[in-house]
Amino acid sequence: MNTALNGPALSLVNVSLEYPDGTSTLKALDAVSLSVRRSEFLSLVGPSGSGKSSLLAVAATLVKPTAGLVILAGQDVAALSEAERTSLRSDKVGIIFQQPNLLPALTAVEQLLIREHLRGKRVREGREKAAELLDVVGLSEAAHKRPHQLSGGQRQRVNIARALMGSPTVLLVDEPTAALDHERSESIVRLLRQVTDEFRTATVMVTHDTEFLPLTDSVATMRDGRISRAVVPSAQPN
User: Fold this and answer.
1) Is the full-model pTM beyond 0.85?
2) What is the full DSSP assignment across 51-113?
3) What is the per-residue pLDDT across 53-65, written as a single tens digit (0 to 9) for each?
4) Alpha-carbon distance 57 to 133, whole Å?
5) pLDDT tens-digit profile of 80-112?
6) What domains can you pick out in the chain, each with its CATH number?
7) How does DSSP assign 14-61, residue by residue?
8) Which residues pair with 204 in a beta bridge?
């Protein structure tokens, strides 16, 4: 477990998020405060509808909160223009979705390179980094395979490598093991532990797989839009 004392890479301070719900208002987040430092791997758990997805959306700067502060990589997100928020998200946030959503016609390495293209970067310069990241996630020999030639676990590994292409400060991970069996699920969480340590990301993972929580540094539990936090025991699964 990584116990280094670092400043927060992501901070939510008294964040609330409300949606219109007919004649009333639905409070998806209710005065949530949370800080995650670099090299910290935090699990976010709780029942469906408790606000976990809303928290990820706010942390990713995809949704503007109704109240409160979001500080990402030292910047107050509310003080930024829409273009500046988009740039910050592109440069500082890696998002790993539940479904990899890989483009069927592209090889594994091309999945990573298209992200660089969308970030306005020179694809040629990204080839070396893409190869390095595929090696990190154990897919160097599958770099030129297309999604239909990869297993579910391999597709999720491409998803992780793609999220790392921009050298993000924060990794936001949404149920990465939902479609995987036990063995592949454990390997994916162990890989997220590895990249959190190696790349010093602040990693927040929404999960229902409580068995793997000891692989993380801390756990935040959500219920009815509110949050509490406890330290996970240091013992890890064999």
Assistant:
1) yes
2) SHHHHHHHHTTSS--SEEEEEETTEEGGGS-HHHHHHHHHHHEEEE-SS----TTS-HHHHHH
3) 999 999 999 999 9
4) 25
5) 999 999 999 989 999 998 888 899 999 999 999
6) 8-231 (3.40.50.300)
7) EEEEEEEETTEEEEEEEEEEEEEETT-EEEEE--TTSSHHHHHHHHTT
8) 42, 172
